UniProtKB/TrEMBL annotation:
Gene Ontology biological-process entries: maltodextrin transmembrane transport; maltose transport
InterPro entries reported for this sequence: SBP (IPR006059)
UniProt key word Transport: yes
GO molecular function, one term: maltose binding
Protein name stated in the entry: Sugar-binding protein
Signal sequence residues: 1-26
GO CC terms in record: ATP-binding cassette (ABC) transporter complex, substrate-binding subunit-containing
Pfam families attached to this UniProt entry: SBP_bac_8
Keywords on record: Signal, Transport
Length: 442
């Protein structure tokens, strides 16, 4: 989520016009040249550690296989530039992009199916990671190369001062949030701390993104599959209502969420936690280096999320390798995908000297503790394996995330709104979105 940029419905509609030039026969009939350099696009900031990590991975692949790779890092207007290339019938050969983009890219016809028989270590890919690369028709269009999941960061010094134990249940979580809000855990004599840092802005669907960690742990859902790729709205189910009520109470009754949360995306929320204004934060492992430097590794700890009414399911995300349609070097595409998920590729992606492309490995034969000795990374890896859940690979997840973010944000911003009425309204919006995408249950 921290790196995603989404396409709106209008852009998707225009992109669908391009499918005839990139899908089906275009991918099959392209004249093949196994010596042609592979063009790899990676969604990351040019010149940053992500680009450097991709370059190191590409260099290792070249050394191992002999295939040449040209890496291009793009962050701003990634989808627009991809559409432009599709219109020119000249897509890059490989794209490293967010796992949540599979539905959009597949529905645009930009991807070719991955032949799993040509992926050497496919049997070693962790189950939920492999599932995240499948479209609604059950075919494999993406391979995970890096995973992440949400865990709970806690101000350890605050917790110890107040003589609290890490929360194991939602009741204990709420009690800690209240204590961090009211019992002056930083000892400055002022009422200036909050229990939980939460990005609840509607921008890019952040409120929904964050709330999913609580919704799923309660057994609720945004939408539920009814079978054969069909879905129905689920925000008015008892479990979803329970999750929304509990989370809202943290903000409206306990007042344990940081002031201004409904206007914040992740950058100001990150600053809230590292500035000592909030004592807990549910987030992925990518912020560990930053917080170690700004806050101090001894000041906070990483623990699994406490068990909710159902379990401790949390949001899983990550990056995937996509093989683009129309390539003139499909052998090179297959070789890169195979290398990226192999033990060698995963280790190289984790141990880059200037940046890394792999946060949590997706190959079950890679032990993160052997490469990163910091035990907090092992905690994240275990959370991903035990509790991580990806958003479903529907044709376009963006509008689902956005309308649910709008509703969550409204309920957190206005404590007087009727929850049941708002969630009924939301379910009607979700029903329209599912119908528009052709996946509504009858």
């Amino acid at each position: 989520m921290q790196r995603s940029r989404w396409i709106g419905a209008g852009a998707l509609a225009s992109a669908l016009i391009l499918t005839s030039c990139t899908s089906g026969p275009a991918g099959v009939d392209a004249k093949q040249n196994s010596k042609a350099p592979l063009e790899l696009w990676t969604r990351t900031t040019p010149g940053g550690p992500g680009e450097k990590g991709a370059q190191e991975l590409a260099a290792a692949f070249e050394k191992a296989t002999g295939f040449k790779v040209e890496v291009t890092a793009i962050f701003d207007d990634f989808e627009t530039k991809l559409q432009q290339r599709a219109a020119q019938k000249k897509l890059p050969d490989i794209v490293m992009n967010d796992a949540t983009q599979i539905g959009t890219m597949h529905s645009q016809g930009l991807l070719r199916e991955i032949d799993m028989g040509k992926i050497k270590d496919s049997a070693q890919i962790i189950g939920q990671g492999l599932q995240s690369g499948k479209s609604l028709d059950g075919k494999q269009y993406g391979l995970p190369i890096s995973a992440q999941a949400s865990a709970l960061l806690i101000r350890k010094d605050w917790r110890e001062k107040l003589k609290l134990e890490p929360p194991r249940t939602w009741d204990e979580f709420a009690a800690m949030a209240a204590a961090f809000t009211t019992q002056d855990p930083d000892g400055d004599g002022k009422n200036n701390t909050a229990g939980l840092a939460a990005p609840l802005s509607t921008k890019r669907g952040y409120a929904s993104w964050y709330f999913s960690n609580f919704l799923w742990a309660a057994g609720g859902d945004f939408i539920t599959e009814t079978g054969k790729g069909k879905y129905k709205p689920a925000m008015t189910t008892p479990a979803s209502v329970q999750a929304m009520q509990w989370f809202r109470d943290l903000g409206c009754k306990t007042k344990a969420i940081q002031p201004g949360a409904v206007t914040m995306d992740t950058p100001p929320t990150n600053e809230t936690f590292e500035a000592g204004k909030a004592g807990m934060y549910v987030v992925g492992p990518y912020l560990l280096p930053r917080f170690d430097k700004s806050l101090g590794a001894d000041k906070y700890e990483v623990v699994p999320m406490p068990k909710g009414p159902k379990d401790a399911t949390v949001l899983a995300e990550g990056s995937s390798v996509y093989l683009m349609a129309g390539s003139d070097n499909r052998a090179g595409q297959d070789a890169f995908a195979s290398f990226a998920v192999s033990v060698e590729g995963q280790k190289k992606g984790m141990e880059g000297t200037t940046g890394y492309t792999v946060q949590i490995p997706v190959n079950t034969n890679v032990d993160i503790a052997q490469i990163r000795t910091d035990p907090r990374w092992k905690t994240y890896a275990q959370v991903y394996q035990d509790s991580g859940r990806y958003a479903p690979s529907i044709p376009n997840w963006t509008p689902v995330r956005q309308v649910t973010a709008d509703a969550v944000n409204a309920l957190m911003a206005d404590c007087g709104l009727d929850i049941n009425a708002k969630l009924r309204e939301l379910d009607k919006q979700l029903a329209d979105i599912l119908k528009e995408q052709g996946i509504a249950a009858s």
